Amino acid sequence: MNVSCEDERYYLFFPESEWLLPAALVNAGHEDRRHDRPYEFNGMCRGSEDLAIFQYTLDGEGELDFAGERFRVLPGSAMLLLVPEEHCYRLPKHSGHWEYYYISVNGVEAVRLFREFRRRNGFLIDFPNNARVVKCLEEILRKLRERNADCQPAASSLAYDFMMALLQSAPRNTLPKSEKLLPQVSRYCLARLDRPVTVAELAHHVNLSYWHFSHRFKEETGESPYDYILKLKFGYASRLLQNSTDSVKAVAFACGFSDAGNFCKVFRRLFGKTPAEFRRNG
Question: Does the reported pTM lie above 0.90?
C-alpha cells in the first residue's frame, strides 16, 4: 500500500490488488483550505471511473454548482457527489477558509448504494457533528493515521463501514405532511428579497432534505422552488421599476443580485424586454 499523508490526506493504492471488491476506499482526509492556493474541482475532469464523494463541512464555507444552481455549503452540511458528473465545487472568494472531512469510495455496490441514498435524500444534506456517519469518518481517519488499512480487504472494510453508517444516518424529515410549505417559504423569501436565497436554504428552514422539499413544494404549488423564488424577486423588481427612480443596478441589488448584467439577462428572459424597456413601456 502506498499512502501519502499531508495535512491529513490519505490516498490508497494497492498495486497487488487481486480482488474485485464491492466497496473500496480511494482516499480520505481532513483539510482546511485557504486562498493561498486555488481550490476548485470539476466532476467532469476527474476521470471516467465511477467514484462516490462525501465531503462534510466543519467550519468556513464552500460553494457548489449543481443542476444549474449555486449552493452555499455551510458548517454541518455534507455534499454527496458522483464522478463523472456535472458539478463543480470551490472555496468562494467571500469565504476566508473551508474546513472539512472527506472520503471517496468506489466499487459497484458502494456506488450503487451511494447513488440510491442520494436519490432519496438529496445531494446536500445537513448532519449534526455527532451523526453516525460523521463519527464513522473520524474513526476511519484515526485508523488511517495509525496505518490500520495495510491491505485491500482492510481498506474495503472501512469503505463498507462508511456506507453502512451513511445509510443509518438518513435525515428524518420532521415537517408533518398536513403542514403546508407555501406560507413558510413565502414569509422566508419575502423577508430576504435583498439577498440570494437558495433551494437548499429553504429546505433547511423547513427541516426537510433538499429532495423531499423540492418534491413536496412542486406537488403543493405546481412549480419548482427555484421558479417560485424568481417569481417573488422579479415581481418585486417590476414594482420597483414602475414606482421608483432607482437605477437598474440599484434594483438588481435590492433583489439580491450582485451582478446587474445577470439580473438584466434573467429579467429579459422572464418579461421579454430589458428592465429599461419595461420601465419606459410601463
Answer: no
